[in-house]
């Protein structure tokens, strides 16, 4: 029986172990350009079987927070190229998370100060981050405007172009489509945010259409073996809500089963919070069984609140990959610490978002 520390083939990628660094927003990319400090940070964590970058905007319209990176300009791609080279030099594998925030934005971050875009003109009851005098401040998201159906092919194309540039120009090993946490694709999926009456709203089939178009476009550009997707069936993050998530995600997962992806990444429960939500029950084992029954062959990755014992249990139960978030912020050598049951550094929430090396590249290593 495999353990967390055994290698695994995931699509086109051969991973040294089954421990994944989850994507973590860190707001250290002024002007959306990845910095040399970011290259150092990711390279420090290259002993993970796979690194997933922080969420990375596919366009300025897809930006929702101050100082998060992008993937749509030459300098951004050059910055990422330095990151991927550092990670590869350190023996790691890295995919970039493709992000469009939809309504979770502020007009100050949008092209021409325009309102953010969304499936429907419903404001998310959530905050975003702007930076004032070098200090992050939390502000309400702006009221969005509903996208016209004729704008959607352009958004699909933007995901595709970002994926192609990520692999061909920036040197990533693959991409993860961010379909989770109340951002654009999740906003379309869920009926709390999608009240459209056209082909992209109403029925489950219609609400899943944009996400599936994006997956087909991205896999068409870089191959399914280099494409993962992240989903969060019941997270309340960013005001995400669906009245009946089990049939919605059963449908989505059956469709994804036909698309030869590298991995499916599921956030169980509330992102960064409780794994069980009494008012939002969800059967993850049934979701996985539905995927396998429909012929899905991708690696199954789980995330949220895992420690070593829970992760080992998951792998023993047939999960392929376990993603750790906060533990990787504070423990660059997390794989070796878990292997040897070494003590773990505690992450400092005060330095999660924004700032420099402090709380970013200065967590001490036990193992080189
Ligand atoms: C924390 C702060 C800002 C963004 C997500 C991209 O939840 C994020 C995010 C997390 O997926």
Spell out the blueprint of helices and strands:
Elements: E1 8-10, E2 13-15, E3 19-21, H1 36-44, E4 50-57, H2 74-89, E5 94-99, E6 117-118, E7 127-132, E8 135-140, E9 145-146, H3 152-168, E10 174-178, H4 184-189, H5 204-207, H6 209-222, E11 227-231, H7 245-256, E12 263-267, H8 284-293, E13 299-303, H9 308-316, E14 321-324, H10 326-330, H11 334-339
Parallel strand pairs: 3-4, 3-14, 4-5, 5-10, 6-9, 10-11, 11-12, 12-13, 13-14
Antiparallel strand pairs: 1-2, 7-8
Helix pairs in contact: 1-2, 3-6, 7-8
Bound molecules: 2-Phenylacrylic acid.
The site of 2-Phenylacrylic acid has 6 residues, from loops.
What structural keywords apply?
single chain, 368 residues, alpha/beta, TIM Barrel, eight-stranded parallel barrel, two-stranded antiparallel ribbon, 11 helices, binds 2-Phenylacrylic acid
Backbone CA Rg: 19 Å
According to DSSP, the number of beta strands is 14
Mean pLDDT, all residues: 97
- In angstroms, what separates the terminal alpha carbons? 28 Å
Q: Low-confidence runs (pLDDT<50, min 5 residues)?
A: none
**Overall shape:** globular
CATH superfamily: Aldolase class I
CATH architectural group: Alpha-Beta Barrel
